[in-house]
């Protein structure tokens, strides 16, 4: 479920990650002053443990997007997996 939050001027969302897994994501989707689309995520596992993630989509001049997927540990943001801080997405005609 994704809803517009007029108070924060961001999209709030709640998703079931994989049906049957009982994992859930909740967070916000917004655009920052540099034109990047940010997805802030709190992932909750079935045992109640949580993780905080941030996915950033930065538009490039050639129409592609530089993407980073980071995990917060304490006050430090680090790649979720090796190379996840320097991904490239290319749009495809559909």
Explained architecture:
It is a single chain. The protein is mainly beta. It has one domain (2-89). It is built from no helices and eight strands. The chain has strands spanning 2-5, 10-16, 24-31, 37-44, 50-59, 65-73, 76-79, 87-89. Strands 1, 2, 3, 4, 5, 6, 7 and 8 form an eight-stranded antiparallel sheet that branches. The radius of gyration is 15 Å and the shape is globular. The mean pLDDT is 90.
- Cα-atom Rg, whole angstroms? 15 Å
Relative strand content: over 45%
Task: Give me the count of strands.
Answer: 8
Could you list the spans in which at least 5 consecutive residues all have pLDDT below 50? none
H and E string: EEEEEEEE
Arithmetic mean of pLDDT: 90
Q: How many distinct helices?
A: 0
- N-C termini distance: 24 Å
Biggest pleated-sheet summary: 8 strands, antiparallel
> Shape from CA axes?
globular
Class of secondary structure makeup: mainly beta
Q: What are the key terms here?
A:
single chain; 94 residues; mainly beta; eight-stranded antiparallel β-sheet
Topology:
Blueprint: E1 2-5, E2 10-16, E3 24-31, E4 37-44, E5 50-59, E6 65-73, E7 76-79, E8 87-89
Antiparallel strand pairs: 1-2, 2-3, 3-4, 4-5, 5-6, 6-7, 6-8
Give a brief description.
This protein is mostly beta strands and 94 residues long. It has strands spanning 2-5, 10-16, 24-31, 37-44, 50-59, 65-73, 76-79, 87-89. The chain has one domain (2-89).
């Amino acid at each position: 479920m994704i809803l517009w939050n007029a108070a924060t001027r961001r999209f709030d969302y709640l998703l079931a990650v994989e049906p049957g897994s009982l994992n859930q994501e909740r967070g916000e989707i917004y655009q920052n002053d540099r034109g990047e689309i940010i997805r802030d995520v709190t992932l909750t596992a079935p045992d109640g443990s949580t993780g905080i993630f941030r996915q950033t989509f930065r538009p490039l001049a050639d129409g592609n997007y530089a993407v980073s997927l980071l995990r917060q540990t304490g006050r430090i943001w680090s790649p979720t997996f090796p190379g996840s801080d320097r991904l490239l997405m290319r749009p495809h005609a559909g």
